[in-house]
Design a protein that fits this description.
Elements: E1 3-4, H1 5-11, E2 15-18, E3 24-25, E4 27-28, E5 38-41, E6 58-61, E7 73-76, H2 80-91, E8 100-101, E9 106-107, E10 112-113, E11 118-119, E12 124-125, E13 130-131, E14 136-137, E15 142-143, E16 148-149, E17 154-155, E18 160-161, E19 166-167, E20 172-173, E21 178-181, E22 186-188, E23 194-196, E24 202-205, E25 210-211, E26 216-218, E27 224-227, E28 232-233, E29 238-239, E30 244-245, E31 250-251, E32 256-257, E33 262-263, E34 268-269, E35 274-275, E36 280-281, E37 286-287, E38 292-293, E39 302-304, E40 309-310, H3 311-322, H4 324-344
């Protein structure tokens, strides 16, 4: 599809500051990948030199970035990356929805299924389930008894949605994830053997939640595990039983949350972060990659390390750690000099 530069500016909340608004563009790509007829963007100043080499026909820039490329159409945006994302969505619209129920799917007669859904082959839908309008379920997904899937949600192949769980509207659950697997709960009996604690709760995904591939979200022993509106969870994440993830939190790959953790609004947990059980991470916290915390984290903090502490202190500590060898040599030299001074007395 082709979009005029002026139209693209309107749709991405940017403005044309250089170039002909009537030129047509056919796509969007990164600086080093964009071709003639495509638009690119600059969000990080370290990539500024690539502007000279890009083959793109247009670029999103902020209000202050300058370029000598007179042949490059420029759209000014307060956030070039956000504008570029909107452009990508315009050039790559969602496929047209086609409603059908494949004859090789298995739907219990007690389930309530809207007329305008898309249910592919080998999907299994259990007793008393509710599948609302516009839902798309790909092959080999399994929906256990009493589960509910809200309007326009997408369930990819291999997903299991366990009994009593609820998926909100406009959610996406990617391949081979499990929503509502048993929480990891055991009690030690008189013989010091592990006795399984019944996991009778459920998982609730509120609206506009996205779950990556191969992620497991455990149900509660009683009550619920809740992922709130707009939260985004990456591939290979473990969410323990009875956790609460607040609105618009972002959890990156290989992160693990122990049971009953509460993750605040707009929190960012980078890759391989570990959260101990029964902790509260406050709103707008950032925990950097490969960090772990065993204590509550106050709102707005940026923390790093194991155990995690203030990111600025951590950076200073890492800088000092890298100089430990040199510092040890300095100490030995000083000890030697002091010893020689003592021997001359």
């Amino acid at each position: 599809m082709f979009i005029k530069l002026a139209t693209l500016a309107e749709k991405t909340f940017s403005r044309v500051s250089q170039g002909d608004g009537e030129i047509e563009l056919a796509g969007a790509a990164g600086l080093n990948m964009a071709k003639s007829g495509e638009i690119t963007f600059l969000a990080n100043p370290k990539y500024t030199p690539q502007i000279k080499e890009t083959k793109a026909s247009a670029i999103f820039l902020n209000e202050t970035e300058q370029t000598e490329r007179a042949d490059l159409a420029i759209l000014r945006a307060s956030d070039p990356y956000l504008a570029y994302t909107r452009a990508l969505r315009l050039f790559n619209p969602e496929p047209v929805f086609e409603s059908f129920v494949h004859q090789l799917s298995s739907i219990d007669e007690s389930a309530t299924v809207a007329s305008d859904v898309s249910i592919d082959a080998f999907v299994s839908i259990g007793k008393n389930c509710v599948i609302e309008s516009g839902v798309k379920i790909f092959p080999n997904a399994t929906i256990y008894d009493n589960a509910r899937i809200g309007k326009n949600s997408v369930i990819h192949s291999g997903v299991s949605i366990r009994e009593n769980c609820e998926i909100g509207e406009n959610c996406i659950v990617h391949n081979n994830s499990t929503i509502g697997s048993d929480g990891f709960g055991y009690a030690k009996d008189e013989n010091k053997s592990w006795l399984k604690i019944p996991q009778t709760g459920r998982v609730v995904l509120e609206d506009n939640v996205e779950i990556g591939a191969n992620t497991a979200i455990d149900c509660a022993s009683v009550g619920e595990t809740r992922i709130k509106r707009g939260a985004k969870i990456d591939n290979l994440v473990q969410i323990g039983h009875s956790c609460t993830i607040e609105e618009d939190a972002l959890i990156c790959s290989q992160t693990g949350l122990a049971g009953s953790s509460v993750i605040g609004k707009r929190v960012i947990l980078a890759g391989q972060v570990g959260i101990a059980g029964h902790l509260k991470v406050g709103d707008d916290v950032v925990i950097t990659a490969k960090s772990a915390t065993s204590h509550d984290v106050a709102a707005g903090k940026i923390i790093s390390g194991v155990p995690a502490f203030d990111n600025r202190d951590w950076l200073r500590s890492i800088a000092a750690f890298r100089r430990l060898g040199e510092m040890a040599r300095t100490v030995r030299n000083l000890e030697k000099q002091i010893g020689e001074l003592k021997n001359t007395r």
